[in-house]
Write a structure and sequence with these properties.
Blueprint (H helix, E strand, L loop, with lengths): L1 H9 L3 H11 L1 H16 L4 H29 L2 H21 L4 H13 L4 H13 L2 H32 L2 H20 L2 H5 L16 H31 L2 H23 L7 H16 L8 H12 L2 H15 L5 H30 L1 H21 L1 H5 L30
Length: 419
């Protein structure tokens, strides 16, 4: 299992890019949790916490593809680092101002989300130029998803440690400071400074003119919604079963499950078309959300969150391959950023919806949301199966410095396409 991952990590600059991206994404990955805990410490309601987290997510959803398109046009260093600094400054304003002025709180949180740098999409764009081989790039996608789950496992624990040792305010400041350092590490690296997007066709829709990409975005909207709903539903459950420590372990359990599933998924070289495989993975993901409604004791509930997360990273890794297939030429960063954006929008909708659901129906109804959202995601994939399975007809990213420096035709793609 480790051999394929070790080959990736031995590549020059791979470890630096991976670690820098993960650290740079800590503020985004932990924002919902940190905001919920901060608002509760300020005496705010679950509805306010969910609404602020939703505003952050929606602003992030707007900013990611816009910044991703700027990265494709202007390069990574000119966009990523300034955006990271602005996002951190806005979150610092929210931390020091608190929730006393709702207008300022919403504005600051919105600005923090809007300027979150598209590091995730940027890393996906860099892998082909760093590795060069299709099978290694696909393994890197899976390893990338696994590494993110390490972040999603460690991130919630880091938030709760900061809150326990200091305060939610310090947690917000520390995480966003680390985010700036991570972005800086990435953008000063040689691959990031040298990377340039392929020439692109001028089109106001950009990556969104691809029907296959739109189908993926529709499905991942509901997967994000499922994950966001668990974030909020776990708060009242934890309040009744041990407090912040239990909440942190529940969130870490999701990441641990995804880490395990992603590690196993990435260790295997998959054959066949990715679209049917994605449908199966999403179906299994939806089924594994259902046991959360049992709400057993804290230890058993953590184990159920591990189970709920097992198929998340495989779904994401499989989706990366399909994005690579359907992304129009010269829009690689934007296309990956749209997937991140849609996932974030879904998570924001999930947090915003589940807050009132929890207040009126309790944690049980909150945990019913992810199973329902997973089922809808599967229906979207089934309904758009022909679009996802169809050849991209020239919409695939063409060989260029952004993904194939040797301009070699990749063996698993149709003639005229490039990985």
């Amino acid at each position: 299992m480790a051999a394929g991952y070790l080959d990736i990590l031995r590549a020059r600059h791979a470890v630096r890019l991976l670690v820098g991206t993960l650290v740079g994404r800590l503020p985004n990955a932990t924002a919902a949790i940190a905001i919920v805990l901060f608002v509760r410490a300020e005496g705010g309601s679950y509805s306010l916490a969910g609404a602020l987290a939703a505003v952050y997510g929606v602003a992030n959803a707007v900013g990611q593809p816009v910044l991703g398109r700027l990265v494709d046009l202007r390069g990574q260093p000119r966009v990523q680092l300034p955006a990271a600094v602005l996002s951190a400054l806005a979150m610092a304003v929210f931390a020091f101002a608190g929730t006393g002025s709702p207008v300022l709180a919403y504005a600051a949180v919105g600005a923090a989300g809007l300027f979150t740098p598209p590091l995730e999409g940027g890393l996906r764009a860099l892998w082909p130029s760093v590795l060069g081989k299709e099978d290694q790039v696909h393994t890197a996608y899976a390893m990338d998803a696994v590494a993110q789950e390490v972040m999603f496992t460690v991130g919630p624990l880091l938030v709760t440690v900061c809150v326990s040792l200091w305060s939610p305010l310090v947690a917000l400041l520390v995480l966003n400071g680390l985010g700036v350092l991570g972005a800086l590490s990435v953008v000063v690296s040689p691959p990031s400074r040298a990377w340039r997007s392929a020439p692109r066709e001028a089109h106001w829709l950009g990556a969104l003119r691809s029907g296959g990409l739109l189908a993926l975005l529709g499905a991942f909207l509901f997967i994000g919604m499922a994950l966001g709903s668990i974030t909020v539903a776990s708060v009242p459950y934890a309040d009744e079963h041990g407090g912040d420590a239990v909440y942190g372990w529940l969130m870490a359990g999701l990441g641990l499950g995804a880490l395990i599933g992603g590690a196993v998924y990435g260790a295997r070289r998959w054959t066949g078309e990715p679209a049917p495989r994605l449908r199966l993975l999403v179906a299994l993901l939806a089924v594994c959300y259902l046991p959360l409604t049992l709400m057993p004791g804290a230890v058993a509930m953590v184990l159920l969150t591990v189970l709920a997360g097992v198929f998340l990273a495989p779904c994401i890794a499989c989706a990366f391959v399909l994005v690579d297939v359907h992304a129009p030429r010269g829009t690689v960063t934007e296309a990956f950023s749209w997937l991140v954006t849609t996932f974030t929008v879904g998570a924001s909708v999930g947090t915003g919806l589940t807050g009132p659901v929890v207040e009126h129906g309790g944690a049980l109804w909150g945990f019913a949301v992810p199973g329902a959202a997973g089922a809808v995601s599967l229906l979207v994939l089934v309904a758009t199966g022909r679009v996802l399975a169809a050849p991209a007809r020239g919409a695939v990213v063409a060989a260029s410095s952004e993904n194939d420096p040797n301009r070699a035709v990749e063996p698993r793609f149709s003639s005229g396409h490039r990985a």
